[in-house]
């Protein structure tokens, strides 16, 4: 069973929040209380080995999706809206591929559907080697500057530091395992054309990791989907502009 943090909420609906790499589920703290206060039952599972979650060497996105299904069953939910940011988006796609009947709706945030090119795959392997040699600080040094809009990175040091701390407390082995799972994920481009549930796509307008052009392409492929671009936000749009992000997410949930 996956370890998770959550908020009780009411009976408005169920929400799974899937976190980015290589931060933990604590990235969803700005969303947990507002969703619960609006009547939603919400949980944010941890990736294997992150924070208090048990390790699972060799895990895949499909493995994680299967454990999400077990989590939903254990919670007594019939379905859930699955919200995934970056790596969480890859997991949300894997979940929908395996369990469309458990998916009330999808929210893809700052993510992409295509698999890695050979060049990107090679870069990820180099990243894994560097983290194993130099430690989790290496992952933070490489990732954090690319997570935020330039203005945020320069002016909001508390947020930048919290994000850095969320990475450096993870074991290098677990960061490497998560990066391997990302590199080996399936291509989900064709899957997008088959999505039949309500779908929202959210992207920071200053996201340089998965730019708005990628979100626009996903929107064009998913029938009936809605696209929302958040100004003054980079890759972790839920952290940079939480009020705007929450408003967009709640509007989507209330439309179901």
TrEMBL record:
One of its GO terms (molecular function) is hydrolase activity. Keywords: Hydrolase. Gene3D superfamilies: alpha/beta hydrolase. It comes from the Bacteria. Residues 15-241 form the AB hydrolase-1 domain. PANTHER family: AB HYDROLASE-1 DOMAIN-CONTAINING PROTEIN, MONOACYLGLYCEROL LIPASE. This is Alpha/beta fold hydrolase. The lineage of its organism: Bacteria, Pseudomonadati, Chlorobiota, Chlorobiia, Chlorobiales.
